[in-house]
Amino acid sequence: MTRPWRRLGSRSLVRDQWIDLRAESWVTGRGAALDPWYMLHWRPWVHVVAITPDERVVMVRQFRPGAEAAMLELPGGVVDEDGEGSVRAAAERELLEETGFAAEGFSEYAAPFNDPAHATNRVHLFFALSARRVAEQALDVAEDIEVVLVPVAEVIAGLPQGLVAHASHIGTLYLGLLAAGRIVVTPTSQK
């Protein structure tokens, strides 16, 4: 049986508007001391699978320094600290700011942890239907985003081929398209 760990201490190494990196001391359930164990204390994130009336997924292409490449991803970002109100409000805001699109029927379908071994935040996943461009992009200083509309069928066919290289966005797309009824799973016992 897996036993919980105990945190003995925590000290901040870097803390600013983007990140709170901490060196923590833990004792595992089996008694092993882990010091330091690095943890990222981030605010919650949101990702949005927005689908247009003509069955295209609203996606974004932006440069990612870790990959040193521009990558196709989903709109999303960090829930604001200023009491944004809800993760749904953050999802609606991120979709509008990054793409200029608004949508109906925002539905949260999952809220998994981002990286539970080293990060405390959850990623709230939404799908939204009837997405339409209603405004110009309102990008942050650090954003340089190209809006890309990809037919749902091309997303489904392209995911195993590397269309999206960001692991959490791959899972978000599969789950989002499943939740939105665009992917149907047939149990093997019914084949």
From TrEMBL:
Nudix hydrolase domain residues: 41-179
Catalytic activity: GDP-alpha-D-mannose + H2O = alpha-D-mannose 1-phosphate + GMP + 2 H(+)
Organism the protein comes from: Plastoroseomonas arctica
Keywords for the protein's UniProt record, in alphabetical order: Hydrolase
SUPFAM superfamilies linked: Nudix
GO annotations of cellular component type: cytosol
Keyword Transferase: no
Gene Ontology process terms (BP): nucleoside phosphate metabolic process; ribose phosphate metabolic process
Keyword Hydrolase: yes
InterPro entries tied to this protein: NUDIX_hydrolase-like_dom_sf, NUDIX_hydrolase_dom
UniProt family annotation: Belongs to the Nudix hydrolase family. NudK subfamily.
Co-factor requirement: Mg(2+)
GO molecular function: hydrolase activity
Any coiled-coil regions, as ranges: none
Protein name as catalogued: GDP-mannose pyrophosphatase
